[in-house]
Design brief:
This protein has 174 residues and is an alpha+beta fold. The chain has seven helices and six strands; from the N terminus they run ααβααββαβαβαβ. Strands 3-2-1-6-4-5 form a six-stranded mixed beta sheet, with helices on both faces. Helix 1 runs antiparallel to helix 2. The longest helix is centred in the middle third of the chain and has 16 residues.
């Protein structure tokens, strides 16, 4: 069996979307070498962003300090988090209130997808209803897309984010 290592520079479902893409290309007759080259050429064509309802679990996991957590909770700050081109977490924005946080998440993803056909995945952490609402917004506001699935995030991510997470993953021009 021939294998190679591909650093997606991403996390969670934004890493998994590449396996789906590679499988689709192989089904369409691409060779192993073509898929390998294609992955390397498209590495920056995926993006994951997620909104968290609370900072409590980031504090418990040691990702942020106690002062940041307390100030964030008092001010009702909701972080939008993504990965940069090196695969490192960064804060896209800190928004006051849940409604504004989700609106910012959607707007950032719409900006990333602008002018492209996209595969979209909606993820959530024990927030099925909120994920459904986000899906409705994506379906009405993003014109050229294919929704791959809506799914609960895995436990290894949920332990640091807690319930209430809503995330979007996009792959441009699959």
């Amino acid at each position: 069996m021939e294998i190679f290592v591909f650093d997606t520079k991403n996390i969670s479902v934004a890493s998994g979307i590449w396996a789906i893409w590679a499988a689709a290309k192989l089904e369409n007759g691409w060779s192993f070498e073509e898929v390998k080259t294609g992955l390397q050429n498209k590495i920056y064509d995926s993006k994951v962003m997620f909104y968290m309802d609370t900072l409590k679990y980031l504090k418990k996991g040691g990702r942020i300090g106690k002062v940041t957590s307390v100030v964030g909770e008092v001010l009702s700050l909701k972080p939008i988090i993504s990965c940069n081109e090196d695969g490192i977490y960064y804060t896209v924005g800190l928004i006051r209130g849940a409604k504004q946080g989700k609106k910012k998440l959607l707007n950032e993803m719409l900006q990333f997808c602008k002018g492209h056909h996209c595969w979209i995945i909606v993820g959530h952490g024990d927030a099925n209803e909120e994920a459904g609402r986000m899906l409705e917004l994506v379906e009405t506001q993003l014109t050229s897309k294919e929704i791959l699935f809506v799914k609960q995030i895995n436990a290894t991510l949920a332990i640091n984010t807690g319930p209430g997470l809503v995330g979007l993953c996009a792959l441009l021009d699959p």
